[in-house]
């Protein structure tokens, strides 16, 4: 048997096991949430901002691509319209 056994009863531990068990569950759930945010599984506004990539917004990246000449004006206007929706 695990633990100490005294007169047919297990000794009282004043809830330390339950406290540390709850702390362990909170840590595991927190790690799962952080992993989900980092891997893009979260799509809400309160979940890391889905329209930002590395600190720059999608519109900033689009403007930069247009300024470099990577995309034409028609494509720029179309993508800008889509982003503004």
TL;DR?
With 85 residues, the chain is mainly alpha-helical.
Poorly predicted residue ranges: none
Distance between the termini: 64 Å
Gross morphology: rod-shaped
Strand content: under 5%
Order of SSEs = HEEHH
Q: Biggest sheet, in brief?
A: 2 strands, antiparallel
Strand-pairing-aware structural class: mainly alpha
- How many distinct beta strands? 2
Radius of gyration: 26 Å
The percentage helix is 40-55%
What does it look like?
The protein has 85 residues and is mainly α. It has a domain at 48-85. It has helices at residues 16-38, 58-68, 73-84, and strands at residues 52-53, 56-57. α2 runs antiparallel to α3. It is rod-shaped and about 80 Å long. The N and C termini lie far apart (64 Å).
Give the SSE map.
Elements: H1 16-38, E1 52-53, E2 56-57, H2 58-68, H3 73-84
Antiparallel strand pairs: 1-2
Helix pairs in contact: 2-3
Key terms for this structure?
85 residues; 5% strand; rod-shaped
